Amino acid sequence: MRPRDPREEGRSASALELFYDLIFVVAVSLASAQLGQMGLSGKPGQGVVEYLLVFFAIWWAWMNFTWFASAFDTDDWPYRVLALTQMAGVVVLAVGTTPAMRSGDFSLIIAGYVIMRLALCGQWLRASRSHPAFRKTALRYVTGILIVQPLWVLYPLTPQGFKIPVFVLLALCELAVPVFAESARQTPWNPNHIADRYGSFTLIVLGESVLASTTAIANALGEAEHVGGLVLLGAGGFVIAAGMWWVYFATDVIDQLGVVKTALPFGYGHYLVFASAGAFSAGIAVLIGLEDGTGKLGAVASAATLTVPVALFVLGVWALILRHRLHGVRRVLVPIGAVALAATALLPHAVVFAAMVMVALVIVVESSCLGQRVAGDTLHPEDECIGPVSHPA
C-alpha cells in the first residue's frame, strides 16, 4: 500500500468509492426521514439535535475514508475487503438511525461507527508497514482512533443530562486526530480527487433529497383534494434544489486543498453543508404535512424547517468556497441572501419566496464570472468579475 502521486492527473472517484457513497446516502436518507417525522409530530427542536448527532457519525466516517483513499487507494483485495467492512458498518449505523432519533438509543449507531473506525485502522496499519516515510503519521492515526473508540462504547452509560456535552467532547477528540497525525507529515492526498469526492457526495445528497421530496409530493397528490399548494411546493422545491447545486458548483476549489492549513477547514466545514442538504427533504415533508393537515407545527415553524437548512447550506458554501472568490459587494450579498432565505419562513407561500431569493443568489454568483474564470477565459480589468484566483502549481 504505497502512497499515490498527489499530482496524478485525471484522478476521479473509483467505482468502489461511488458504491461507498451510495451506502452512506442510505444512512443520510433514514436520518432525514426521521427528522421529517419529528417535525410533523411537533418536536422539531429535539429532531434537529438528534439529527445533528447522528449525522456527525455518518459524515465523519465518510470523510476519514475519503481522505485516506485519496492518498493510499491501492485497490487490491485486502483494501477492498477492509473498505467493504467499513460499508457493513455503515449499514449497521443506518439501521441504528431510527432508534437513535426516536428514543435516544445510540447502541447500534455506535456499533456501526466502531466497525467503520476499526476497519480504517486496518488500512492505516497496512500503510504504516508499506511506506516508512509515512509510518509515523499512519501510526498516529491508529493511536488516536483506538483511544477514542472505547469512549464511544461507554457513551450509552452517560447520564441523560450529560449526553450532549459528552458527545461534543468525544466529537472534538475525533476532530483532533487528523490535526495530530498530519502534523508529523502530510499524507499525499490528491486535491483534484478530493474536490471530485466532495462534489460527488454533494450531488448524491442533493439527489436523495430531491428524490425523497418528489416521492412525498407524488404520494400526497394522490390523496389531496386541493393540489395547488402541493404544485407550488414541488415547483419551488425544485428551483431551490437547483439553486443549491448551482452555487456549490459555481467555481473551482482545488487551490484550497493543497495543504493542511486550508484543506482541513474545507473538509470540516462540509459537515454543515452536507447536513443542511440532507435536511432539505425533511423540510419538504413537514410542509406537505402543513398542506394536508397532518402536521402539528404552525405555518412559520413548518416553513422554517425548509428555509433554515437551505440558508445554512448557502452560508456554508459561502464560507468555504464563495467568499474566497467573490469580489466587492457580491461577497456581502450572498450571506445577506442566506439570511433573507431563512426569513422567507415569515411570509405566506414561503417556498415561492425562498425560490425567488435563491434565483437572485444564483444571478449574483453567475454575474461574478466564476465559471468563465475557472474555464480560463481572458477577462479584462474593466470586467465586473472576481479578483484573481490562485491555482496550485
From TrEMBL:
Keywords: Membrane, Transmembrane, Transmembrane helix. Signal peptide: none annotated. The chain crosses the membrane at residues 12-31, 51-69, 81-100, 106-125, 137-155, 201-221, 227-250, 271-290, 296-320, 332-365. The keyword Iron does not apply. It comes from the Bacteria. The keyword Membrane applies. InterPro entries: Low_temperature_requirement_A. This is Low temperature requirement protein A. It comes from Leucobacter edaphi. The lineage of its organism: Bacteria, Bacillati, Actinomycetota, Actinomycetes, Micrococcales.
